[in-house]
Amino acid sequence: MRTRDGEHWTAYNDRLPEAGLVHSGYSLQYLAPADFERVWRLIRECLAPGGWLAVDLLGDRDEWAGTPGETFVSERAVRTLVDGLELVRLDEEDGEGPAYGGTSWHVFHVLARRPRCP
Questions:
Q1: Could you give the domains of the chain?
Q2: Rounded mean pLDDT of 54-82?
Q3: HSE value, Cβ hemisphere, 13 Å, CA-based, for 77
């Protein structure tokens, strides 16, 4: 994680420094569900008022859905995950997409913002 003071490395069970932007591109699905819940909580807690959240989450209809130790979400789950944030944009891709050997993608692209005032 990069901060104003340079780089800061932390274990996922620590508190994260306040951030004006959290971006996670195609990575959170590699967390086991229990780890995903913990990391998601940390991400939500570190967002500064007015801070942005930009994430890609693999959906429950992705070709790899059901892979043990990984997290896949439904649209309903995505909306629950961002509850309390301003959901600026939610795009869903569901179909064939580019990949080595081809694959059926199901991805949610999420852009949300923490309100400036609680």
A1: 2-113 (3.40.50.150)
A2: 96
A3: 14
